[in-house]
Amino acid sequence: MSPAPVLGLFPAEPDPVAGCPTCRDLARQREAARAAGDGSRVSDCNVLIRAHPHGPRPGGRWS
After folding, report:
1. HEC string of 26-61?
2. DSSP code of 24?
3. What are the pLDDT digits (tens) for 8-43?
4. Is 31 a member of any domain?
């Protein structure tokens, strides 16, 4: 039998980029989904915020 997988913690929720209307809209959708108890949609919004292109951030991270 294989050993049980080791699961890590979820990464911190991404912050929307200031001044970006797409990020602002996704953050609003995320909060509405959280209020409705829709954890799947919260996760989807987090993925979309992380993947939304803005170029490099300070420290070498891409947003």
Report:
1. HHHHHHHHHHCCCHHHHHHHHHHHHHCCCCECCCCC
2. H
3. 777 789 999 998 999 999 999 999 999 999 999 999
4. yes
Residue 6 domain-assigned (yes or no): no
Report how far residue 52's alpha carbon sits from residue 32's, in angstroms, rounded to the nearest whole number: 19
- Judged by DSSP in three states, 62 sits in strand
User: What pLDDT band is residue 56 in, cutting at 50, 70 and 90?
Assistant: low
Which residue(s) pair with 56 in the sheet?
A: 62
35: amino acid identity, one letter:
A
Among 24, 29, 11, 32, CA closest to 52: 24
Q: Does 35 reside within a domain?
A: yes
